[in-house]
Specification:
Layout: E1 3-8, H1 16-24, E2 29-32, E3 41-45, E4 48-52, E5 65-68, E6 73-74, H2 76-88, E7 96-99, E8 103-104, H3 107-120, H4 132-141, H5 153-174, H6 183-197, E9 201-202, H7 204-213, E10 218-221, H8 246-252, E11 261-267, E12 270-272, H9 285-293, E13 306-308, E14 310-311, H10 312-322, E15 326-330, E16 340-349, E17 352-354, H11 361-366, E18 368-375, H12 391-404, E19 407-412, E20 420-422
Parallel strand pairs: 1-10, 1-11, 2-5, 2-10, 5-7, 6-8, 7-9, 11-15, 14-16, 15-19
Antiparallel strand pairs: 3-4, 12-13, 16-17, 16-18, 19-20
6-O-phosphoryl inosine monophosphate (IMO) binds near residues 8, 13, 127 and 224.
């Protein structure tokens, strides 16, 4: 398995971390390339549940090199918290590496994230308030601060002073906020973080390139999901990075020719946290059942996730925009005991039936899902072989494949490592 990219093919929380953890057993390197600690990645192993936000989910395997790439925005306090949590559980972080180009999430980014949400009022995005948008804004505006700046304390201090001056003005004069940031305090705190993080810092683009060149198994761990992509998602109800497979190249510093396989992770249904249109959203008892049985509450914010039927228009869009050959279909155990399962095959938009995901949010809001009904199934969480699935599950998988245009290679029947069923022999 040389270089594989694993991305979320819906609105995030598809169970990417479980798949990454499983694939990490055979991986030499696991790389995160975008997002920040807005991500919440859950891995369940031997009764222990780990929640990762920045540290790649491969860290539980002692021999796996775990890279946080240049495209990730990093809250140093957040990553240090994760490192401490891992040490408390007896897990080594010796193999963790952070790219020196990665941008720092600063305290004012978090403040501005919250203030902007309030300012937006009813049209708020429902962000995680982790400062992700404001940090990527500074990066694009070319006023961001990077890890490499920390190795030159005077330069770092100057950048913080310049930023704090302008951010304080924005907070007070635009948002009428009362928070005043003290540049000197931030400089001291962040130089302290730098001291604790310096052994992890390096040019990871070299490590990733050399690993792939020498034939090592490299897995790229996506965060968020296709419809949260800044360019291709349901803009403006998106995140500020590129969760599609294309984002991996920029965020880890490798070329597209170095990627061998792209796998999309989907759930047997769809969820969304935060605001924005969601054509197949359920507001009835079935939606509540999925949320309860699937524990659909945000890993990062604890917010209830909105739940809905599987949407093949989205699935097809993800396959197309990320060049997915394979689908890992998670959480179909959660759908047990629903007598009739619906699957959205197209949208009705005015007098048109469409199967391509609409670029305009206004059109998407008008789309009515067109459903096909399928027979449901009973308990399946104990199943260990594809052949043991009831025919109804096999039919469902086949229909997902036909509608999305990629092969379902893995099926999730529970949160644990071993509750992943390979459809074909593992290569
Ligand atoms: P990620 O952000 O894509 O890594 O997903 P999250 O960790 O935010 O959310 C997925 C949740 O579903 C986690 O609590 C996982 O432990 C759980 N999970 C993953 N796969 C399965 C599955 O096949 N069945 C069930 N029941 N739970 C799963
Ligand atoms: P993982 O990696 C689900 C959503 C937020 C909000 C929007 C913008 O666990 O799948 P942001 O804080 O990024 O500016 O918020 O994006 N969001 C996620 N939803 N899973 C995630 O990550 C998400 N990361 C951000 O809820 O709607
Ligand atoms: Mg998540």
């Amino acid at each position: 398995m040389p270089a594989k990219v694993i991305i979320g093919a819906q609105w995030g929380d598809e169970g990417k971390a479980k798949i990454i953890d499983i694939m990490s057993e055979a991986a030499d390197v696991v790389v995160r390339a975008q997002g920040g600690n807005n991500a919440g990645h859950t891995v369940a192993v031997n009764g222990e549940v780990y929640k990762f936000h920045l540290v790649p989910s491969g860290i539980l395997y002692p021999g796996t090199l775990c890279i946080v790439g240049n495209g990730v925005v990093i809250d140093p306090e957040g990553i240090l918290g994760e490192i401490d949590m891992l040490h408390q559980k007896g897990i080594s972080t010796e193999n963790l590496k952070i790219d020196v180009r990665a941008h720092l999430v600063m305290p004012y980014h978090k403040e501005l994230d919250g203030l902007k949400e309030v300012y937006r009022g009813a049209s708020d995005i429902g962000t995680t308030k982790k400062g992700i948008g404001p940090c990527y804004m500074d990066k694009a505006e070319r006023s961001g601060i990077r890890f490499c700046d920390l190795s030159r304390p005077e330069l770092f201090a100057q950048k913080v002073r310049e930023n704090v001056k302008i951010k304080n003005e924005i907070i007070q004069k635009i948002y009428h906020g009362d928070k005043v940031f003290d540049a000197e305090e931030i400089i001291e705190t962040y130089l302290g973080y730098a001291n604790r993080l310096k052994s992890f810092l390096t040019d990871t683009t070299v490590l990733t390139y050399e690993a792939i060149k020498s034939g090592k198994n490299v897995v790229f761990e996506g965060a968020q999901g296709t419809l949260l992509d800044l360019d291709l998602g349901t803009y403006p109800y998106v995140t500020s990075s590129h969760p599609v497979t294309g984002g991996v190249c920029i965020g880890s510093g490798i070329g597209p020719t170095m990627i061998d396989e792209c796998i999309g992770v989907m759930k047997g249904y769809v969820t969304r946290v935060g605001k924005g249109p969601f054509p197949t959203e359920l507001f009835d008892k079935v939606g509540d059942q999925i949320r309860d049985v699937g524990h659909e509450y945000g890993t990062t914010t604890g917010r209830p996730r909105r739940c809905g039927w599987f949407d093949a228009v989205i699935g097809k869009f993800a396959v197309r925009t990320s060049g997915l050959a394979a689908i890992a279909l998670n959480k179909i155990d959660v759908m047990a005991h629903i007598p009739v399962i619906k699957i959205c095959t197209a949208y009705q938009l005015g007098d048109q039936v469409i199967t391509e995901f609409p670029p305009s949010l206004e059109d998407l809001e008008l789309c009515q899902p067109i459903y096909e009904e399928m027979e449901g199934w009973g308990e399946i969480s104990h199943i260990t072989q594809y052949e043991e699935f009831p025919q109804a599950v096999k039919n469902y998988i086949k229909r997902v494949e036909e509608l999305c245009g990629a092969t379902v290679t893995m099926i999730g029947v529970g949160p644990n490592r071993e509750q992943n069923i390979y459809r074909f022999p593992v290569q």
